[in-house]
Design brief:
heterodimer, A: mainly alpha, MetI-like fold, about 70% helix, elongated, B: alpha/beta, 10 helices, globular
């Protein structure tokens, strides 16, 4: 059918500008959402923290005062605010600030790639599982249940140890572990929406099941995926740090926040800053993701944002 | 209401190829499984709708009106619904439940539907205009630029004063009455041979009800399509329908020409229904049909209306058949048995 394959762009609608005496067109849904997000203080703080952190990650080689992996004998366990080492240095005399900046280059991909991959896989599985009640849906949902039954960390470690340590393994195992969660969120939303009157209406206007899935269900599911993904990005930063802490992440000399905490454990009594500084970085980034996620939740829901 | 503009885009009269009934549904039985047991939503319902005919389906909530209507284009998802039996012929062709391509062609183009809560029948994520455009595109009506004029004209025809701005609004930004008129306009744009209106006025305030009703009347007069009007309001049905079907507990209990039924109701349930719809009894009090409709998961044996029927007798322990009582009239009650009630 040629009509189904027609371009999906919405047609241009008549301009209603003349209806508004001020001469301004009514705000689009996107503009309203953006305005709601900008007005949300904690979301903005989260966004700013994340922008700074992403900037640090990108520009680390230029702004870091030292080579993150080069130790300096004289600086071993230097406390914070000591000359030349703003955040102190670790047991090998490596500058902690430089290592945190370079660590951001690992932390963001480690958190974002798995979430992005899981968002795509989970959305597809959840849509199919929630929409097609029957054999297809049952198989998908029961397989996800099996994954749920295994504790998240255990499953991730099992995958990581089977495939060997290293960054790609961490990313893959985290993606596998989060997928069922996103799929369940999507499946629940899908199951709710599939019985909505407007889906019946679309069906009785002659829409095919695939078109209903794409045009009527998917748009209502994406906001929850975005919100769930963003909010969980914070947890994923912590999760990835956990991998580093357990020595399953990027191999040793690399500046990984989790591995840095683990390194600092040995001198936690005498030099607490070695563990604490990367810990603060993890908390800051993870909180920032949570705040931004909450703000997005409001901004993406037309009913919530108008109530504010 | 002012002088209305011409009916937009007058096509050639619909359905000139065949002369039989437009829709023929026979032996429809639909059940749902529920924790309380199997719900017998619709039992052995046969309905025939002629071309250009307006049929009213009347019954209490849970009498199977909506399930029957939705089944006219196999719209109920299965599961949870279970189609036990039933065949449909539409426009002279069988419409088997498995033939998804044909069903999809019939939906919209052949049979259009207007829902009780029109606002909920639009997707809240899109502006009304986008949804109209998409529905038209599904039916191959072409690009927005080609159909825009027709859309605006049809909306104005449906008493929408400012169609340009309504098209730019989201469903939650318009009133229920406007949404209902937009959905009728959409049905008109697609020009189905059969328009099903499922309680189109129930969710509206009185003024909007009147407006939607007179719009439906006009649609019916001018569009030469068949209409199925589902309602629990007898006066609404009386105003629009040619023929009325009374349903009780998932079965047709009486059917016939609308004025006949109003003048001479045969089934005790219909008599009760008309009595409660009348303004007052002689003693100045509102009449109320005693009792409750039965639990569809645990129907009493025999006639479903027996527990509420003042005239029930021994034979009512069996389900009465639908007797043909007069030309065009049917009634499911042993009192109307042509061989005598006490047989």
């Amino acid at each position: 059918m040629s009509t189904v394959g027609a371009p999906t762009r919405r047609p241009k609608l008549p301009d209603a500008r003349h209806l508004h005496p001020s001469g301004s067109a009514p705000k689009s849904s996107f503009q309203q959402g953006l305005a709601s997000l900008v007005a949300d203080r904690s979301a903005m703080i989260g966004l700013i923290v994340l922008l700074i952190a992403v900037g640090a990650a990108i520009f680390a080689p230029w702004i870091a005062p030292y080579d993150p992996n080069a130790g300096e004998g004289a600086a071993i366990l230097a406390p914070p605010l000591s000359p030349g080492h703003l955040l102190g240095a670790d047991q090998q005399g490596r500058d902690i600030l430089s290592r945190i900046l370079f660590g951001a280059r690992l932390a963001f991909p480690e958190a974002m790639i798995p979430v992005a991959a899981a968002a795509i896989a989970g959305t597809i599985l959840g849509l199919l599982g929630g929409f097609f009640k029957g054999i297809v849906g049952e198989i998908i949902m029961r397989s996800l249940d099996v994954l749920f039954a295994i504790p998240m960390v255990l499953l991730a470690i099992a995958i990581a140890t089977t495939l060997g340590s290293g960054l790609p393994t961490v990313i893959l195992s985290m993606a596998v572990v989060i997928t069922p969660y996103i799929a369940r969120v999507v499946a629940t939303t899908t199951a709710q929406i599939r019985s909505a009157p407007f889906v019946d209406a679309a069906r009785c206007a002659g829409f095919s099941e695939w078109r209903i899935l794409r045009r009527e269900i998917l748009p209502h599911v994406i906001p929850s995926v975005v919100v769930y993904g963003t909010t969980n990005m914070g947890a994923m930063v912590v999760f990835a740090a956990g991998f580093g802490f357990l020595g399953l992440g990027a191999p040793p000399p690399a500046a990984d926040w989790g591995a840095m905490i683990s390194d600092g454990m040995k001198s936690l009594g005498s030099a607490p800053w070695v563990s604490t500084m990367p810990g603060i970085a993890i908390v800051a980034v993870s909180l920032a993701f949570n705040y931004l996620g909450d703000g997005l939740r409001v901004a993406l829901d037309p009913r919530l944002r108008n109530r504010r | 209401m002012n002088a209305r503009p011409d009916v937009p885009a007058p096509d050639e009269p619909a359905g000139v190829t065949t002369t039989g009934p437009l829709l023929e549904m026979s032996g429809l039985t639909v059940r749902f499984s529920s924790p309380a047991g199997e719900v017998h939503a619709v039992e052995d319902v046969s309905i025939s709708i002629a071309r250009n005919e307006a049929v009213g389906i009347v019954g209490e909530s849970g009498s199977g009106k909506t399930v029957t209507c939705m089944s006219m284009m196999w719209l109920l998802p299965s599961p949870p619904a279970r189609y036990v039996s039933g065949r449909i012929n539409f426009d002279g062709e069988a419409l088997p439940r498995t033939d998804e391509r044909r069903i999809r062609r019939v939906r919209g183009a052949g049979i259009g539907m207007v829902f009780q809560n029109a606002r909920l029948s639009f997707d809240p994520a899109y502006r009304l205009g986008s949804q109209i455009a998409e529905a038209l595109r599904v039916h191959g009506a072409g690009r927005w630029g080609d159909v825009e004029g027709r859309v605006l004209e049809t909306l104005r025809y449906c008493n929408i004063a400012d169609p340009e701005s309504v098209l730019r609004q989201f469903p939650h930004e318009v009133s229920g009455g406007v949404a209902q008129r937009v959905s009728i306009a959409l049905a008109l744009l697609i020009r189905p041979k059969l328009l099903i209106a499922d309680e189109p006025t129930t969710a509206l305030d009185l003024l909007s009800q009147l407006e939607v009703l007179s719009l439906l009347e006009r649609v019916r007069r001018e569009m030469s399509s068949s209409l199925v009007l589902v309602s629990h309001d007898l006066n609404v049905v009386r105003r629009i329908a040619d023929r009325v079907i009374i349903m009780y507990a998932g079965r047709v209990v009486e059917e016939g020409p609308v004025e006949d039924i109003f003048a001479h109701p045969q089934h005790p349930y219909t008599q009760g229904l008309l009595a409660s719809a009348a303004q007052r009894t002689e003693r100045g009090r509102l009449y109320e049909l005693p009792g409750q409709p039965p639990d569809l998961a645990a129907l009493p044996p025999g006639c479903s209306f027996r527990p509420r029927c003042a005239r029930a007798f021994a034979r009512c322990n069996h389900m009465p058949p639908l007797y043909a009582t007069a030309p065009g009239r049917h009634c499911r009650c042993f009192l109307l048995d042509p061989r005598g009630a006490d047989d």
